[in-house]
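Below is a concrete protein record.
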Amino acid sequence: MKMKLCGIFVLLVCCAGFCGAIRCYVCSTISTSNCADTFNPIGIVQEDNCVGCLKLKGKQVGIQLIDRSCLPLSSPVSGCTSGSQHGFDAAACHCSTDLCNSATCSTAIFTIIVIPLVMLLKYL
């Protein structure tokens, strides 16, 4: 009996890292038109073993960019953050359920996410 309980405990510990993993859509409007706000999941890559999903949406001078990705690190709270700087409007949304970044707008650390997005749009 003691050996059975020990075996179950070891099995649970080994599976703990996999049980919390979720799937996220991974795409960008730079390369995939289906990734836009009028999201169409056909042909969109799904990545497994994510801790959270992210959707970034930015717009400057009429050019809109949307990026959906898998987060390897968790955020303490799901939700969205938005802001505007130098004519660039951006929103970053974090969620933690399977394929949740398909929503129109799905929290990430805003400055770490938005700064590279601003730089990318600057060179478009």
Q: What stands out?
A: Residues 1-19, 106-114 have pLDDT under 50 and may be disordered. The two ends are 65 Å apart (CA to CA). Helices lie at 2-19, 110-122.
